[in-house]
Amino acid sequence: FADNGSTKHNITLTAQDGHEPLLKDLCEALTEATGVPVPSQKVIFKGKSLKEMEEPLSSFGIKQGCKLMMIGKRNSPEEEAELKKLKDIEKSVEQTAKKLEKVDGELTGLKNGFLAKELQAEALNKLDHRVKVASEQFMKILEEIDGMVIGSYDAFLKIII
Q1: How far is residue 66's CA from residue 46's CA, in Å, rounded to a whole number?
Q2: Which GO terms describe its cellular component (predicted)?
Q3: 63 — phi, psi (to 5°)?
Q4: Closest Cα to residue 69, out of 9, 21, 28?
Q5: What does DSSP assign to residue 17?
Q6: Alpha-carbon dihedral of residues 95, 100, 101, 102, nearest 10 degrees?
Q7: How far apart, in Å, are the Cα atoms of 116 and each of 103, 119, 125, 131?
Q8: What residues contact 6, with CB distance under 8 A and at least 6 apart?
Q9: Which end of the chain is less crowded, N or C, counting CB atoms within 10 A of the terminal residue's CB?
């Protein structure tokens, strides 16, 4: 990125598995070249904003040597750190949800009489404890999310394919 926020990039895309490059392939290549995440990109060709990610580039009239423009927001180092935190939080949510799924399966087993009656009360107490632990984990996750701030700055690019 130049100081004025305008930089030219040459992007080369090749057909993969016999399929011509799609708009999403271009956008992913732009992320590699510029650091601007795909959701933050606005790709413009001949004054039209391109949005159909699964369409081949040829359907927009794009061919070798065409010039496109991308307007986008690149994440700052602070934002990248926050996004990494978000990914870590997502993993934590998935792990906690899996624990609750196991609790649900065991509870179903109890309901269906897979455990002797004299052991059911103790099993229910253990399940109750596991649900409370999961609930506390979810509360901690919500507090982490509540403390996060994600901003961005604008970048302007001219892209040549």
Answers
A1: 10
A2: cytosol; membrane; nucleus
A3: -140, 180
A4: 9
A5: T
A6: 100
A7: 18, 6, 15, 22
A8: 156, 157, 158
A9: N
Structure tokens at 86: 């978000």
**Digit-coded pLDDT (tens) for 49-101:** 999 999 999 999 998 888 999 988 877 777 778 778 888 999 999 999 999 99
What pTM was estimated for this model as a whole? 0.50
Q: Residue 115's CB: how many other CB atoms inside 10 A?
A: 15
Q: Is the dihedral of CA 49, 51, 54, 59 positive or negative?
A: negative
Strand 67-74 to strand 153-160: parallel, antiparallel, or no bridges (unpaired)?
A: antiparallel
Tokens at 128, concatenated = 């109750």
φ, ψ dihedrals at 157, nearest 5°: -130, 145
Domains and CATH numbers, the chain: 6-75+151-160 (3.10.20.90), 78-146 (1.20.58.120)
Strands (E), 26-66: 41-45, 48-50
d(CA 101, CA 108): 11
- 159 neighbors 57 (Cβ within 8 angstroms): no
pLDDT of amino acid 5: 56
- Count H helices and E strands in the chain, helices first: 3, 5
For residue 56, the cross-strand partners are 22
Q: pLDDT band at 149, cuts 50/70/90?
A: low
